[in-house]
Amino acid sequence: MGEPVILEAVRTPFGRRDGALRETRPDELLAAALGGLVERAGLDPARVEDVICGCVTQAGEQGANVGRLGVMLAGFPVQVPAVTLNRMCGSSQQAVHFAAQAIAAGDAGYAIGCGVESMTRVPMFSDIGGGFERLNPRLLRERELIHQGESAERIAERWKITREDADALSAESHRRAAEAAREGRNAEILALTGLDPEGRPYEMRRDEGIRESVDPQKMSSLKTVFRPEGEGIVTAGNSSQISDGASAVLVGDRARAEADGLRPKARFRARVAVGDDPTMQLTGIIPATRLALKRAGVSIRDLDWIEVNEAFATVVLAWAAELEPDMEKVNPWGGAIAHGHPLGATGAGLMAKMVAGLEATGGQLGLQVMCIGHGMATATVIERL
């Protein structure tokens, strides 16, 4: 049985919808992440025994097993297989889990968990040809399945979260992300060629959606999206940005990696996936966190770095109310409200950011947790080595 360790973790800069990565196909984004990953790690791609790719909207340019297409475009040997999975927003975090489990089982010596999503080129719900109305009618009769934005509003009601609370967390996300980008902290980011609004190419080294400053008055003037004005608090400003990007994490057996001269960066203390209420649907991060901490044998106070995906500000605030963490350790370099949430790419992207953050700060223990549509969540506890 092997001991899975993280050897390298990278992501592309995340681009805005219709922004700098608008002309870059998702399979090319994935190829850039995969190629950059093995180059940084100093590993011959022929040594990789499997590539597990997370992608939510598997249609069009993201169809036909985009993981395998990205592997071929990255120039990996044809002997390297790949599979594409969909656990919605937790897809590439789950891909990393599966890679680690393959190593632990002795089925592979090196594996990659990765993810990709171009929400510009392959819009959400295009895999089912529309929205909720395309789901099984019996399921819609038996379950109250609602838009995640409405779930975020119900979370605000249950935990008594105000518009001011949500906007303040969002502004802080931008402030932290801008500071990290300005100071060049995001070592996990691979430089990529993007296009400016006029179509001129430039070297993209930071996430496109980050705002250097947030005007509180402008933030408070944004209209609610999912409920009439005055009846809700969720706006475009306190929700994650629709984005494009890719990410990849190299996992290997510790003994084999060390024998090959590679330095392990972190080991896994817990890997968790849970189901939860499909109507509230975004609250699964609460039981997922509790289970991950229990399996890892640590408390929330033992953690040095926490990544909670900022799908909506209300989700993070409800989680914080239940877990009572040190908020200085939660998304220290900002979150998806600032840098964006390219669905299938976010999980491995947050993992890459957390590994880089632990290395930069000398921290030891990190938690990553993500809410998932239809009421699920994924969580990982890692220990820096």
From TrEMBL:
One Pfam family hit: Thiolase_N
Keywords linked to the UniProt accession: Acyltransferase, Transferase
Single annotated GO MF: acetyl-CoA C-acyltransferase activity
Gene3D superfamilies assigned to the protein according to its UniProt record, in alphabetical order: 3.40.47.10
InterPro entries in the cross-refs: Thiolase, Thiolase-like, Thiolase_C, Thiolase_CS, Thiolase_N
Domain (Thiolase C-terminal) ranges: 263-384
Annotated Thiolase N-terminal domain residues: 5-251
CDD domains: thiolase (cd00751)
Residues the record marks as active site: C89, H341, C371
Entry's EC annotation: 2.3.1.16
PANTHER family per the UniProt record, alphabetical: ACETYL-COA C-ACYLTRANSFERASE, BLR7806 PROTEIN
Family: Belongs to the thiolase-like superfamily. Thiolase family.
Name under which the protein is recorded: Acetyl-CoA C-acyltransferase
Species annotation: Rubrobacter xylanophilus (strain DSM 9941 / JCM 11954 / NBRC 16129 / PRD-1)
High-level lineage: Bacteria, Bacillati, Actinomycetota, Rubrobacteria, Rubrobacterales
